Backbone:
């Protein structure tokens, strides 16, 4: 019985190992990962050249961090097309200004994303000036790629944590408690924070229902940053286009950056969403200083890129669980083998005790025999004297 139990456990381990091998999907790594940054929708110079732009130095630093420091190939895209996205793993899609995404552009993005092992960073903006089309374009893309994250059609301000004005929000609440995103916010602290210039906030969308990410757990969605507790929603057209999962005038700490993993049909894509642009725009999240306030934007943005380029899939998670199960079974098998050895030792000890007992029994029987003989001899002696 003991041998059969051990054999069954070993067979379980071997079976799990075979399953792991069968579902493992090799990742084709390239020498230089390609990152596409969209400039074709008003996020920056339409020709892709930042020379003379007020953000020239900042975007040169941004590009340098991606190319020189990280070793990636960067394409400042003047159009969204199959050719531009070919072989790209990462797409920065900042909020659109001045024109909508075309149906063809959305289809190109969706088809690229569905190839698998892709990451898209979608930036959005507030409804300032009634420009709801910006948020509508953001949500159009998120909806098309099957994301559970949405941009809230509103504006958020912070009268306390900001860069010289309440609409220049300095988000300073980081999700260090979640191991999934703790690496993203490493280096971003409450003292400096990260600039979100005139932003909106985010909400979750599950089974057709809009839910606030501040109080609701959404599968595979993790909040990364929130505004400070003094955040307040200041909707520009609350009677026409009010917030979906929040209320105009609501105060508190709101999710302004979130990520989603295991996205796409193969469950191996990632999505990053921010309430403002990480690059370009009026003043991007990558900023390290604004109006005299030191900021942790570069750390946050580059950490998020590092998270995004690491390919992870639901299959990877399953294999990890199987590997842990294998280790558990192997440990249990080892414990059982140890117990079997202990049982064998105990059996040997018992056999020795039984042998000792037999010896004692023999001595006892001999002593009893001698005692009986002595009694008989004594009885005979008494009888004779009588």
Residues:
């Amino acid at each position: 019985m003991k041998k059969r139990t051990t054999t069954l456990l070993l067979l379980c381990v071997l079976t799990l190992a075979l399953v792991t091998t069968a579902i493992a999907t090799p990742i084709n790594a390239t020498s230089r990962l390609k990152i596409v940054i969209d400039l074709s929708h008003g996020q920056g110079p339409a020709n892709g050249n930042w020379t003379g732009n007020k953000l020239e130095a900042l975007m040169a630093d941004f590009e340098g961090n991606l190319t020189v420091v990280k070793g990636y190939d960067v394409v400042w895209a003047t159009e969204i097309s199959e050719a531009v996205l070919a072989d790209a793993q990462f797409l920065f899609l900042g909020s659109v200004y001045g024109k909508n995404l075309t149906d063809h552009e959305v289809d190109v993005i969706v088809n690229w994303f569905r190839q698998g092992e892709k990451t898209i960073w979608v930036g959005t903006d507030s409804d300032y000036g009634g420009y709801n089309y910006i948020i509508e374009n953001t949500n159009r893309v998120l909806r098309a790629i099957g994301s559970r994250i949405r941009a809230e059609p509103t504006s958020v301000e912070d009268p306390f944590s900001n860069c010289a004005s309440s609409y220049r929000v300095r988000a300073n609440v980081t999700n260090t408690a979640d191991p999934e995103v703790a690496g993203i916010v490493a280096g971003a602290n409450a003292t400096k924070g990260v600039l979100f210039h005139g932003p909106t906030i985010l909400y979750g969308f599950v089974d057709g229902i809009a839910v606030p990410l501040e109080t609701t757990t959404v599968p595979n969605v993790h909040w990364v940053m929130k505004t400070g507790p003094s955040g307040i929603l200041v909707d520009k057209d609350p009677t026409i286009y009010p917030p979906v999962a929040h209320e105009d005038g609501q105060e508190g700490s709101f999710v302004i950056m979130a990520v989603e993993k295991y996205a796409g049909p193969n469950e191996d894509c990632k999505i990053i969403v921010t309430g403002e642009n990480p690059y370009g725009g009026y003043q991007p999240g990558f900023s390290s200083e604004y109006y005299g306030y030191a900021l942790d934007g570069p750390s946050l943005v580059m950490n998020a890129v590092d998270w995004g380029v690491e390919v992870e899939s639901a299959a990877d998670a399953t294999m990890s669980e199987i590997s842990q199960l294998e280790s558990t079974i192997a440990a249990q098998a080892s414990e059982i083998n140890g117990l079997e050895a202990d049982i064998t030792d105990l059996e040997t000890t018992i056999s020795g005790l039984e042998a000792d007992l037999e010896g004692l029994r023999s001595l006892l029987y001999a002593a009893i025999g001698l005692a009986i003989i002595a009694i008989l001899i004594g009885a005979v002696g008494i009888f004779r004297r009588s």
